[in-house]
Design a protein that fits this description.
Elements (H helix, E strand, L loop, with lengths): L2 H8 L9 H9 L6 E5 L6 H11 L5 E5 L4 H9 L4 E2 L7 H19 L12 H13 L4 E6 L7 E4 L1 H7 L3 H4 L14 H12 L4 E8 L5 E12 L5 E10 L1 H37 L3 H13 L6 E8 L4 E6 L5 E3 L6 H9 L3 E3 L14 E9 L2 E10 L6 H28 L2 E9 L4 H9 L3 E8 L5 E7 L3 H9 L4 E8 L5 E6 L3 H8 L3 E7 L4 E7 L2 H15 L2 E10 L5 H11 L2 H12 L11 H7 L4 H21 L2
Parallel strand pairs: 1-2, 2-3
Antiparallel strand pairs: 4-5, 4-8, 6-7, 7-8, 9-10, 9-14, 10-11, 12-13, 13-14, 15-21, 15-22, 16-17, 17-19, 18-19, 20-21
Helix pairs in contact: 1-5, 2-3, 10-11, 10-13, 11-13, 16-17, 19-21, 20-21
């Protein structure tokens, strides 16, 4: 065979191998796209080569050219499934070989240039059987319809189609696949399918179909047209997957999203309204009534009530939303209320709960403590016929309970100033504090005379110095919590003002609206005297002081009546009128002995302590004096 002539004829690459084994290796290693082999009785055995190739590559293109025309050679070649046989009797053997190569080798090479498909190495029968098994056993439903027949009947369905739909092959072959449709199948989806088929285009939809037993399932359907060599649609192949579980999960997520959105809308309205109530209410009774009215007006709430907690008697007294009642927390059925109060956590109610707390007529109920920090002022009970009070609902209700509790605390804090009776408490803090450290450093060189709480919570301590004034200032400045030590008077009776950064006990008292009366201290302890409006707040303050300092001893506790205009009330009224600078000037003048005669300090020293010029100090002081006298003479 003329290799160079064949290469020119096919305009391709030709490799010549004369060794049998080397030629076979090239074929088996997939180094070539086809083979043209000679057959010569005394040379290259083309029939043996063909037989060897067919053992491993049944469909590999082999063109056989015998050197001598022999009928037995042709018969053997056909028996071994030769691709093409070119007898030597051809007028132009080279041209005939080139034609066969172009037809069987070149075209195949172009089709397989990207990915080699080993399935083509099988016999046609084996390849067909393998493809049929793959279709039959595919995990997705498959159906083929004949597009050339009226109503496009099914001509094939696989095993998964039977499993998914429940219809057997005998029931489906020869009929249109619309038998899967039913009452809830979406018309717009079926129209989308029909429009795509009419346009001979592929389509993919998710639609409701029905099993043979009438139950609904969600079908993910993909349909693709199959065309013949002329481009005409001859068949449609459809793939089905039962995606019911996925769709149900999607619907569940959507339902949950809608439920949460409705809940969010309700919550935003409820929280906004209750927040406005607690901010604008002028009494605890006002908070109770308005909060219960708003919560009870929610469509999902059947009723609500608020009870006030009496820690001394261990009672809950209803204050809004229910008839007057007292619930003894030690009585049977009161356990949920006791749990809510003692653990400051939500508790669930049932029909066995005592008195007004019990659920009725199939209600679900919860009780929420009204708390501020460590103090529980009462409980909020909420009931519903439609709500089970899940996590989202209870989280909101507990937040409302804390909001109402904070409002009650704020109102009771104001009550300390205006009430006719207060609880006066004295405690000793036996712990290492900045004040005990200060007393230890100063020693006998100075005597603590007075304490004022500045507007920012810092303490101003006034010391009359008996010893070395510089040593006192140096000792005070050595305490980390001391922000400043200032000499206010340095003549016959030296006075030093020491500013101590806001101690924890000032913050605690302020949180609960307590009025600090006196602060006394020595190197061993700090004694506080303060007043509060309620027993709950007093207990909470002592508990928090114990948490902050450890060793706290209660040394005084009694109720006392206050005059109509209390000292605290008058002071609060004056402080509201004064600016910060005016109040500071008045305080410094008072504690430094500026108003005594002879004066223990002068304006220049006080102005310097405020970092202002004397004229500015006197302006602040005179303005403060005028406001103070106005309140005294003209105030009610």
């Amino acid at each position: 065979m003329d290799a160079e002539g064949l290469e020119r004829a096919i305009q391709g690459s030709v490799v010549v191998e004369t060794d049998f084994a080397a030629a076979l290796d090239r074929v088996l290693d997939n180094d070539v796209d086809g083979a043209v082999v000679d057959h010569h009785p005394s040379g290259f055995d083309g029939i043996a080569f063909l037989r060897a190739v067919r053992q491993d590559r049944p469909s590999f293109p082999v063109v056989l050219v015998p050197a001598v025309e022999d009928g037995s050679v042709a018969r053997q070649a056909v028996e071994q499934n030769v691709t093409a046989y070119v007898p030597t009797s051809e007028t132009d053997v080279l041209e005939s070989v080139a034609d066969q190569v172009e037809q069987h080798v070149m075209i195949r090479s172009e089709a397989d240039s990207r990915v080699r498909m080993p399935i083509s190495d099988r016999t046609a029968e084996e390849e067909q059987r393998l493809k049929e098994r793959a279709m039959d056993e595919a995990p997705v439903g498959m159906a083929i319809a004949d597009a050339t027949l009226p109503d496009e009947p099914l001509i094939y369905v696989n095993d998964s189609f039977e499993r998914i739909t429940g219809f057997t092959k005998a029931e489906t072959i020869g009929v249109n696949c619309r038998f899967l449709q039913g009452p809830d199948t979406e018309i717009e989806k079926t129209r989308e399918i029909r429009d795509a088929l009419d346009a001979a285009e592929p389509v993919s939809v998710e639609l409701r179909n029905y099993h043979k037993d009438g139950t609904l399932f969600w079908n993910q359907l993909k349909i693709t047209p199959i065309r013949n060599s002329a481009g005409e649609v001859t068949n449609y192949v459809a793939f089905q997957q039962d995606i019911t579980e996925r769709k149900e999960a999607e619907f569940q997520i959507e339902r949950e999203r809608e439920r949460l959105q409705r809940l969010l809308d309700r919550i935003n309205g409820l929280i906004g309204d209750v927040t406005e109530i607690v901010v604008t209410a002028d009494s605890t009774a006002d908070v109770y009534e308005r909060a219960v009215d708003r919560i009870g007006s929610d469509d999902a709430i059947s009723r609500a009530w608020i009870g006030e907690y009496d820690p001394g008697a261990r009672l809950v007294r209803t204050r809004a939303g229910s008839d007057d009642a007292e619930i003894d927390l030690a009585s049977p059925g009161a356990e949920p209320l006791a749990t809510a109060i003692d653990e400051q956590s939500l508790a669930r109610l049932d029909d066995s709960a005592v008195g007004p707390a019990g659920c009725r007529d199939g209600e679900n109920g919860v009780v929420i403590p009204l708390t501020y920090r460590r103090t529980t002022y009462g409980v909020l009970a909420v009931y519903s016929h439609t709500q089970s009070f899940d996590e989202e609902e209870t989280t909101v209700l507990q937040a409302l309970g804390r909001s109402i509790g904070a409002a009650i605390n704020d109102l009771l804090s104001k009550q300390t100033v205006t009430t006719d009776a207060v609880i006066e408490i004295g405690v000793e803090i036996h712990d290492n504090t900045p004040l005990t450290a200060l007393a230890g450093e100063i020693g006998d060189d100075a005597v603590h005379e007075n304490t004022l709480v500045r507007h920012d919570g810092d303490l101003l301590l006034l010391f009359e110095v008996d010893g070395d004034i510089d040593a006192v200032v140096t000792a005070a400045e050595g305490i980390p919590a001391v922000s400043e030590a200032t000499v206010l008077a340095s003549d016959d009776a030296p006075v030093v003002e020491v500013a101590v950064e806001r101690p924890q006990f000032v913050s605690t008292l302020s949180e609960y609206g307590a009025q600090l009366a006196t602060v006394e201290f020595d190197p061993n302890a700090v004694e506080l005297r303060f007043s509060v409006a309620t027993e709950q707040n007093g207990r909470a303050i002592v508990d928090e002081l114990e948490d902050s300092y450890g060793a706290v001893e209660l040394v005084a506790y009694h109720e006392s009546d206050q005059p109509t205009q209390t000292r605290q009330g008058f002071r609060a009224a004056v402080e509201d009128e004064l600016t910060d600078r005016q109040l500071t000037a008045l305080q410094k003048a008072y504690v430094s002995g500026f108003f005594e005669w002879p004066r223990r300090s002068d304006g220049d020293q006080l102005a310097a302590s405020m970092d202002v010029v004397p004229s500015t100090f006197y302006q602040h002081l005179r303005a403060a004096e005028k406001k103070l006298l106005t309140s005294f003479f003209e105030g009610s």
